[in-house]
Structure formats: C-alpha cells, structure tokens
Sequence to fold (391 residues):
Amino acid sequence: MMKEFAEYSKIADLLVRSMEDALSPEEQDFLDKWRKEDTAHETLYQKIFTESFWTGHPQKKYRGEIASAWMRLYERRQKEEKRLYLRKYLRISAAVVVLIIGCSALWRWHLHSAAEPGNGSVPGNTNVNGVELVLSNGKKVVLRKDGNHKTLDEEGAVIQAGKEMVQYWGEKDVDDLKYNTLRVPRGAEYKLSLADGTRVWLNAESEITYPIAFKGDVRKVTLKGEAFFDVAKDAEHPFIVHTSDFNVRVTGTKFNIRSYSDIPISTTLTEGSVQLERKGTVTLLKPGQQAILSGEKIEVKEVDVNEATAWRNNAFCFKNQTLENMLNEIARWYDLEVFYMTPLLKTLHFTAYFSRSCSIEEVIYKIERTQKVDLELKGKVLTVNYNNHNQ
Fold:
C-alpha cells in the first residue's frame, strides 16, 4: 500500500511540473510510461490539460484513485464563490487530497496560476534566505535573494551566478589555488558547476568549499551538509570530497553524501564506483549501495537509491525512520526548530512520502493522520507531543 501511495504522489508531482515544462528526460519518460499503462491515465492526463475541465462539470468519474481524488477536488472548487476564502479553502482541499492520495500538488498549481501575487497562502517552502558565496578575498555575495544574474571576476576564473546556480569557468594553469565557499541556508537548495565541469546539487543547510580552478594531481572539495555530485570524468585527476569523518575518492561518477551533525554520515552511489577512505581503511561501493558510519565502523548495505536521494526529485521519503531523523530533515527544509515534550517521542518510527512543495500545514496534517503524535506550530517552533488518544 505504501509503495502504491508513493507512486501516486510521485505522479501528482510530475503532472504539476509537466504543466510548467520542468521535467528532466528521465521524469518525462516515467510520466509517458504511466500514461500508456491504462487508458484511464491518458484520459485523465488529457482532461486536466484542457481549460474545459474547469468550466464544465464532467459527467462521470474516471477509474483509479488519482481520478477520484481529482474529481472530489473539482467538486469542492465549484463551491468556492469568493477569493477571500482562499486561505481557508486551501487547507480544506489539501486535507482531502492528502487523505486520498496526497496529490494536492495539482490543486496548488491551479491556485497559484489563478491567484494574484500576494493573495492566499503559498504552499511549500517560502524561505527567502539568500544563498551566500564567499570569495577568496573574504567578500560575501548573496546570490538568491533578488534572483538577479551576477558576473563575478576572480583571478583564474570567471563566475556567473543566478537564482538557481553558480557556474565557474577556470584556467587550467594557475599559480596558486584560490578557494570559494558556497553556503546554502535552511529552507533552500542550490546548484554549482565547478571549473572542471563537475555538477553539484546542494541541499538545505549545506556548505561546500572548492578551488575556483583545479591544479595538481587531485581535485579536492570539502563538504558540510548534503550534496549530490555528478563528477566530470578525469582518470588522471581523482576527485575527492572531504567530510568531517571520511573522504570519498572518484574519477567520474554520481553519488550522494549526507554529512549533517545530527545524523550518521552516509554516502549513496547511483552510478560508477567510489572508494571511502577513513583512518587508513578503504571501502569500495557499487551502484545501489550505501555506506553509513556507525560508531567507528563503516557499514555497507543495498538501498533504493530513489528513496535515498528523494530530495533531488523534490520529495521527502522516509522508510521506517525515527521521528527525530524525520523531523530534523523537515525542519531543515521549512526552517523550523523542533521541541519534544518528552525525549521518548524521538524514538517513534514512521514511513512517509510527500512532495517538498507541500506546505508545512500539509506535512503536519499527514504526520498527525498516523495518530501517533500531535504537532503544534507557533511561528518557527514545532512542538511534538503524544497523540491524546494514545496517552
């Protein structure tokens, strides 16, 4: 049931981003296969992409849970008479859709496209903190707050920065290595293209330090937090990611590193091969494997890489995770502080999947549906207590 629910949620997210032409080739292929699986899927797809769906009431419901949820949402929309009730209505409709299959992302897309800027509540993460680039001379440049394109000049590299990514073009022959640091705050994510062509996706509350142009036998960067790397192939110049607990050495591959202070550090390999180096011990990983530092020992296990790297696809995916680990990740994205009424709450286990574009109210609703805990949000503080019925 959980797998089925997760797939419906993923389809809902893909449909929304398809409307915005924001799908990767792999995501578009996944959506195309889903449309071909059942004629009801294709009928629904064609229907929601026509304006007539919103102006005329369909005479029959489509098969499947996605169609059922969409139809119920449509019927509620028909009852909405005034935009003044938008905020209240969003919460009600989100609750209905999360209850059925979690595809409220479709409804949020329509509200966003129909509403005037500044009206109603904005779903998902609304943090406006800026990504910060620290240049080699110590100067700090905020990259994301205004979204304006910036061209910066450092000796040995040309830097172009925009709302979503900073990109480097470096000289191969430089006298001395000069380093920049990119800091991504809570509630944000950002992309980085290094001088060698390596691409890096940084998750919330992460920091990476790197040379503006590479020199010497190795390409080395330092990471705090979480990042996904697509390393440019160069067998003669290994790429090394240094973390607080181990180094990851590659020549060209794709992998994810999670190095936060509140959870065990881990590396997940999606393509190619990597080797972890820690205190003279080398551990090799194959695609689909994850290495976790447990105490002083590195443990390797097989994982679903789609779950392990869900944040790269704008999703949260928790499989039998402790409440503490789950809320730590949620708090980083929504920029919250979590307060537990008793430490025992942290040990409860949850399995959940939802889009990172959900509002925090939707996330809270879904967690409370388990009837394990009660969550209360006041400002930036999320208070956690046992569900009253389970006390």
